């Protein structure tokens, strides 16, 4: 839960988008940013042959699933950190935000990842000054819930 007086401006959305788009691994996977807000982050992943884990059935690789959920959760944690550190001078705020990282990640694989496009969502459970906890879900293009996750992130 982010600070209610914090507004995620278009400029901050652009900063978060550019941050995640500059990560080569995110580019290689093909992650697309859908929605960025204080309440939710949505990302999409088009299926491509390189992401298949079970070649007999054409199922999305479990490592790709966990990576996408982690990236989505990390974006939500970053937005929460922006809100919690908005009172700090820019150099100190940026120094804290540069420490963003995953502390713990739990993924529950519920169903095979079948489809042509997957959607990951992340919702904040707790956004503290140092640690954020985020809940994530992954759905296939037909709405099937493929996996859920909980991530704990260092936020400064």
From TrEMBL:
Coiled-coil residue spans: none
Pfam family, one: 4HBT
Keyword tags: Hydrolase
Enzyme class: hydrolase
Documented EC number(s): 3.1.2.20
Ranges where the Thioesterase domain occurs: 57-147
Taxonomic superkingdom: Bacteria
GO molecular function: fatty acyl-CoA hydrolase activity
TM annotation in the entry: none
Catalysis: reaction(s): a fatty acyl-CoA + H2O = a fatty acid + CoA + H(+); a long-chain fatty acyl-CoA + H2O = a long-chain fatty acid + CoA + H(+); a medium-chain fatty acyl-CoA + H2O = a medium-chain fatty acid + CoA + H(+)
Similarity-based family: Belongs to the YigI thioesterase family.
Name the UniProt record assigns to this protein: Medium/long-chain acyl-CoA thioesterase YigI
Highest classification ranks of the organism: Bacteria, Pseudomonadati, Pseudomonadota, Gammaproteobacteria, Pseudomonadales
